[in-house]
């Protein structure tokens, strides 16, 4: 009886040590981008179970996809502008110029040409989708529901992190080779197709979400919507009137949030509410 109890205790001790060590190593790996063992292993696992559209276990596009999603998701509309795709339809051009509210707008083609004399013109950027790619992306908003959520390791684990309204220094030294320009055609596509013309134009957060859906295979969303008490405010403030922007009509935050929830319900994105 005593020997049996001793064996059970030893087995329990070894098991507890393995669980503790694995948990520690896994959490440490997620925090430290220099350690890629688990990321590599999980990507390989996803490749094994993938259906061929991408290297992830579940891809943004599936062979037998949801009709609602299929009607809206159009990979031929690239999010980023280049010289090659900078030509706008009349409808898009007039809508875009109306947003600028300039009485004497500059010549769009001339602006584009000057722009790409300064920054790189790469028409193939993020057009690398295929059965071997499993690009994971985190879209991080600025909702108060981020506070105390402890989502940091999960966010850091992603291949790409897209953060909106990140605090910046008073002086910014930018690398021109890393500047990307949204395409006005993509703006209009998001506004017409995904938001069905709600509001004046899409919010930065919703554009970031659709951008991620077009360049990534697996998208996780953090810091969107209200906190657990229904307050729409930013994580850095205690302003419970922060949701007043919803009344301006510039962005239809409720409609954008409902579309985001629907995407989560259809398992197109992972949506972390913070509570």
Automatic annotation (TrEMBL):
Enzyme class: transferase
Gene Ontology MF terms in the entry: beta-galactoside (CMP) alpha-2,3-sialyltransferase activity
Cystine crosslinks: 137-216
Source domain of life: Eukaryota
Protein localization: Golgi apparatus, Golgi stack membrane; Secreted
CC annotations in GO: extracellular region; Golgi cisterna membrane
EC number(s) reported in the record: 2.4.3.4
GO biological process, alphabetically ordered: carbohydrate derivative biosynthetic process; sialylation
Keywords associated with the record: Disulfide bond, Glycoprotein, Glycosyltransferase, Golgi apparatus, Membrane, Secreted, Signal-anchor, Transferase, Transmembrane, Transmembrane helix
Known pathway: Protein modification; protein glycosylation
Range of residues in the leader sequence: none
A Pfam family reported for this protein in Swiss-Prot or TrEMBL: Glyco_transf_29
Membrane topology according to the record: Single-pass type II membrane protein
Keyword Transferase in record: yes
Cross-referenced InterPro entries: Beta-gal_alpha2-3_sialyltrans, Glyco_trans_29, GT29-like_sf, Sialyl_trans
Similarity annotation: Belongs to the glycosyltransferase 29 family.
Record-given protein name: CMP-N-acetylneuraminate-beta-galactosamide-alpha-2,3-sialyltransferase 1
Gene field: LOC106570220
